[in-house]
Amino acid sequence: MKKVSGITKRWVLNTLCVIIAVMAVIATLSSAFIYSYYYDSVSRTLESHTNEVVSTFFNLYSGSSEELFETGAREFVENFDDKETIEVWVINKNGKVVASSSGFDITETNMPDYKEACSSNKGKAIWTGKMSSGEKVMAMSIALPPTADETSSNTAVRYIISLKDIDTQIYMIISVIIFVCLLSISLVALSGSFFIRSIVRPVNKLNEMAKQIAAGNFNTHIDRLTYNDEIGELCETINYMSQEISQTDKIKNDFISTVSHELRTPLTAINGWGETILQSGASDTEVLNKGVKIIVSESKRLTEMVEELLDFSRIQSGRMTLQIEKIDVLAELDETVFVFRERAQREGIEVVYNATDAIAPMNGDPNRIKQVFANVLDNAIKYNKQGGKIVIIAEVTTEQVRIIIGDSGCGISPEDLPKVKEKFYKANVSVRGSGIGLAVADEVVKLHGGELIIDSVLNVGTTITILLPIIPPEIPTMVLPDERSEENNEQ
Asked: How far, in Å, CA of 377 to CA of 405, rounded?
């Protein structure tokens, strides 16, 4: 059997891991987007200074001496407006920085963008990296146009933006994104673990309860849950199932005890009279005849009980078969009433039988139909009292026969009435019998397509209505006068 903790494992693998993967993708894409957005902004800022003003300004100093070029470079740097955010350098043809907006002498040699701008056809290049000082920057160099006697020019203007503050801001935003993702994962894990516990704990209890029920402890139950959901409903259903199994088990045990007692009674009589006959010998004819009659009677009673148990077993396993033939239901009822009337009179019970003279044909098993009537009449006698009455009424319609058998016996309580047709159930344990007669009768009636209805009032009596379908009468075909004449002519 799988452990219930597998639910938690499946949730972690199928849900939490997916959420973590999604959050990781979101954090990665967001970080890449933010990084690209800020660096593109810096690049666009540098690109905004690529204009003809630079070339025009330095054309005045084209071909001039180095001193005059440096003077122009300092003038250009001094007039630069974005000194607070961008550092600008002017580089002469020897690759030396002759003017800078910082005012310090520059000895930087790591300038890949400068070299690329001087050697490329575009005349400009951009570079992101670390300077000799270790500071991360983005730099863009613009090569100045060569003079008439020069094939190429090494003079250039270089714009530099420090990325320190920008990287700090990017890292802060990415940290916030990662924190939000981790917080979201934590909240999902917390709420998910709480939700899983609310499922796993009841399921664990249900598992333990199922084990106890399997071990035969039917009195176990689960305490009512706080949540009114499917799990709570399942727990209530399991509790109800446990109660029903416990009650069914008790009914079954009572049934076994009752049947054992019922079987023991005729067996005791048979055994006792058998020993009496053996002891008295064949000389005492009166004892012999009386003993044989009792043995035969009790054997017949024992056989009927065993047959009833076998029938019930067949019904439970779905193996009961019917020997279908065309019968008259009321004729079978007449025979059964005739047999039980004498028994009822011996016990001081009046039988009133009122049946129509009509025929009630149906396709059925005559022995099983008699068994239904016999079981119902047997109960009517057993649960009646001396001086009581049994009324039997039979009515026939075009579609069914209605047989009503009412008695003035002890009746059935409202609590027991819905269960009297259930297996093993016996409302009154003080009366002899196995308690399965009505269950067998109800199943036989159902197999014939009918219905058995029980109405009862405690201490007043019980009425059982048996409805069975019958074969509708044939409607004679009317022959018109013209057709009759044609038939006569043909003859």
From this structure: 8
Q: Are 366 and 330 in the same domain?
A: yes
State whether 314 and 444 are in the same domain. Answer: no
Token readout for 86 is: 């961008």
**Per-residue model confidence (pLDDT) at position 335:** 92
Task: Identify the band that residue 426 occupies on the pLDDT scale cut at 50, 70 and 90.
Answer: low
pLDDT of residue 2: 45
What is the mean predicted confidence (pLDDT) over 468-475?
79
Residue carrying structure tokens 């029938």: 311
Spatial CA neighbour of 128 closest among 160, 169, 95: 160
Same domain, 156 and 229: no
- DSSP for 135-204, please give it: -EEEEEEEEPPP-TT-SS---EEEEEEE-HHHHHHHHHHHHHHHHHHHHHHHHHHHHHHHHHHHHHHHHH
One domain for residues 66 and 112: yes
Name the band, by pLDDT with cuts 50, 70 and 90, for residue 3: very low
The H-assigned helical ranges of 318-328 are none
Asked if 277 contacts 296 with a C-beta cutoff of 8 angstroms, the reply is no
Q: Confidence band (pLDDT; 50, 70, 90) for 171? A: very high
Report how far residue 86's alpha carbon sits from residue 89's, in angstroms, rounded to the nearest whole number.
Answer: 10
Written as one string, the DSSP assignment of 83-125 is TTT-EEEEE-TTS-EEEETT-S-------HHHHHHHHSSSSEE
Among 220-224, 430-434, 482-486, which is the least confidently predicted range? 482-486
299, 270 Cβ separation under 8 angstroms: yes
Residue at 369 is within a domain: yes
| Look-up of token digits 């009324």 | 391
> Which residue in the block uniquely carries the two structure tokens 């022995």?
367
Token pair belonging to 275: 């020993």
CB 86 within 8 A of CB 79: no
Classify the C-alpha dihedral 37-43-44-46 as positive or negative.
positive
